[in-house]
Amino acid sequence: MIHWLVAGVGDIATKRVIPAILAEPRSRLAAVVTSHPAKAAAYGVRGYGSLEEGLTDPSVNALYVATPVALHRGSVLAALAAGKHVLCEKPVAMNYSEASEMAAAAAASPLVCAVAYYRRLYPKVVEAKRLIAAGAIGRPVLAELNCHSWFAPADGFRGWLIDPRLAGGGPSFDIASHRIDLLHFLFGKPVRATGFASNAVHTYAVEDNATVMVEFGGGARGVVDVRWHSRVERDQCRIVGTEGALELDPLNGPLLRTPTGDLELPAHANLHFPIVHDFVNAVLDGRAPACPISEAIHTDWVTSQILR
Known about the structure:
Layout: E1 2-7, H1 11-23, E2 27-33, H2 37-41, E3 46-48, H3 51-55, E4 62-65, H4 72-81, E5 85-88, H5 96-107, E6 113-115, H6 123-133, E7 140-150, H7 164-167, H8 171-174, H9 176-187, E8 190-198, E9 209-216, E10 221-227, E11 229-241, E12 244-247, E13 255-258, E14 261-264, H10 273-285, H11 293-307
Parallel strand pairs: 1-2, 1-4, 2-3, 4-5, 5-6, 7-10
Antiparallel strand pairs: 7-11, 8-9, 9-10, 11-12, 13-14
Helix pairs in contact: 1-10, 4-5, 5-11, 9-11
């Protein structure tokens, strides 16, 4: 049984992470780290005012890090030092140097340390990877992913995302990271990366758009364009090969268009449940998680190339 400590009881934790833990059959929510005791009381669990205090709880054997990115490094390193398994929100860290330090600590430990890039577990993404490996589109050469929306936080809700001291970057960290990791999942380790980030509309302290181009060892390239200044929402994903293409538009929807027909492969109603379930299985059954931190840091390498 996994007895979870959740650090950070914000939007993502209350909407997805904690419900996933409560629904996972080999999990229980043991405690949360929060400065608001009422948040712990709402779940009938212990509340700790600091992570350090929570990690001393002998009943806890795993930590979910659901805090702003700036706190990821310290939280993961502290959990590993305390003998706790860790599932961390994305991206791994504020930069590639921090991410590499965290991955090194995980490699030196027998504990499971994974990152919540949950799109790797979308049924249609898993099927797309299988089709690519089977040669359904010939040799893959290009992937195009766009994610556009309007983001202007009001009344402080999710306002930390536009504070570079907490978030590290804007859409390049928040939404591009998922798509860069997806490219890594499909094509392997990135070998070159370049791109642009700027403020085209909003004047907040992080970029409001970024365009990233990544090249992979097999020769495939990926282009990821993310924007927080579009009134028209887009969530596009297209994978082009020498003999066909796979269409996953919208990426968060169920449709997968293949050269031989369309498939409807919906994701779980709670997008975080499969990654929590996978992590529990990795810990209790002794196998690798869907996204170990050793792989997740390649996304931090890519974004560091863009924002340096």
